[in-house]
Amino acid sequence: MIPAAFDYTRPSGVDEAVGALRDGGEDAKVLAGGQSLIPMLRMRLASPTTVVDLGDVTEMRGVRDDGDALVIGAMTTHDEILHDPLVHEHAPLIAQATETVADRQVRHLGTFGGSLAHADPAGDLPSVASALDATFEVAGPSGRRSVPASEFFVDYLTTVLEPDDLLVSVRVPKLTGWGTHYEKFNRVAQAWALVGVAAAVRRSNGSVAEARVALTNMGPTPVRAYGVEDALTGTAATEDSLAAAAQRAADGAEPSSDPSASAEYRMHLATVLTRRALQAAGGA
Ligand SMILES: Cc1cc2nc3c(=O)[nH]c(=O)nc-3n(C[C@H](O)[C@H](O)[C@H](O)COP(=O)(O)OP(=O)(O)OC[C@H]3O[C@@H](n4cnc5c(N)ncnc54)[C@H](O)[C@@H]3O)c2cc1C
C-alpha cells in the first residue's frame, strides 16, 4: 500500500527536531532507520501528519567514551554498533545481541535508538538495555531528562516518550571484569526472538559476585529476572548452581501465546536459555 500523505521535515539538530515535533503536534512521528515505521506507514497502521526525519542529526550518531560509561547516540545504526571497538571492549552484550538482529540490510539502516523507542517485546535490545541498567537521555520541549531503563518501557510498543520527545542517546555503564552473553531462540535464522536472554555475570574467586539477567519476549516489556539474580549472587559459579538459579527465570513473567509459541513453551524456553546464557557468561 501507499502511505497516507504527510508533511516531511529533515532537521539538522536535536533542538530543531524537538521544535518540529512540537509544531507537528500529537500526530508527528520521528523517522530513524525506517525499518519499523515505513512498513507501518505502508500498511496504514500509522498515519502521521508530519514525519521528522533524523537522518541529518549527526550529533545523535556514534559511540563515545564518557569515563565509567559509554554514550551511544540514538541514530547509531546496528551495523555501526557491531563495528565499534568501544562497544566490543566495554559493552560486549550489546554487540552479541545486535549480531542476532535481522539481516545485514536491516542492520545497515535500523538504529539502536529506534529499536529502543519502538519497544517491540520481541526486539533484542530492550532486554539488553535493561540488563545493563542503561539510562535514556531524552529531549523534549521543556528540556532534557534522564530516564532509567527500569522506567523507560511502559507497555507493548509503549515507552515514557511523549509524542514531542526525542530519544537522544543511551548511557551504558561499562562492565569491567564481567562475562556477558545473549542467548536467542528463533525458529529460522534472522527471525525475531521467540524468547531471548541477556546475561551479565561478575565472578570473584569462583563465586558469582553479581549477576544481571533480562528476558526478551516474556511479557509486553523486557522482564528483569531478579529471582535468578538473587539465587545466583554469592553462590559458587558451578554448572549445577547456574542451572538451579535458571529455574527461576520465568518467575513473575506473563508471556503471551501466539501462533509461534504458547505461553507455557515460552516459560520453558526461558529457563533453558537462561541456563545456557549463564553458562556462557559466567560458567567455570
Ligand atoms: C525484516 C526485519 C527483521 C527484524 N528483525 C529484528 C530482530 O530480530 N531483532 C530486533 O531487535 N529487531 C528486528 N527488527 C527491527 C529493527 O531492529 C529496527 O531497527 C527497529 O525496529 C527500528 O529501528 P529504526 O531505526 O528502523 O526505527 P524507525 O522504524 O524509524 O522507528 C521506529 C519507531 O521508533 C520511533 N523512533 C525512532 N527513533 C526515535 C528516537 N530517536 N526518538 C524517539 N522516537 C524514535 C519512531 O517514531 C517509530 O515510532 C527487524 C526489522 C525488520 C524490517
UniProtKB/TrEMBL annotation:
Family annotation (InterPro entries): CO_DH_flav_C, CO_DH_flav_C_dom_sf, Diverse_Substr_Oxidored, FAD-bd_PCMH, FAD-bd_PCMH-like_sf, FAD-bd_PCMH_sub1, FAD-bd_PCMH_sub2, Mopterin_DH_FAD-bd
Signal peptide: none
UniProt keyword annotation of Membrane present: no
GO molecular function: FAD binding; oxidoreductase activity
Domain FAD-binding PCMH-type: 1-177
Record's keyword terms, sorted: FAD, Flavoprotein, Oxidoreductase
KW Oxidoreductase (keyword) present: yes
PANTHER family: XANTHINE DEHYDROGENASE SUBUNIT C-RELATED
Protein name: Carbon-monoxide dehydrogenase medium subunit
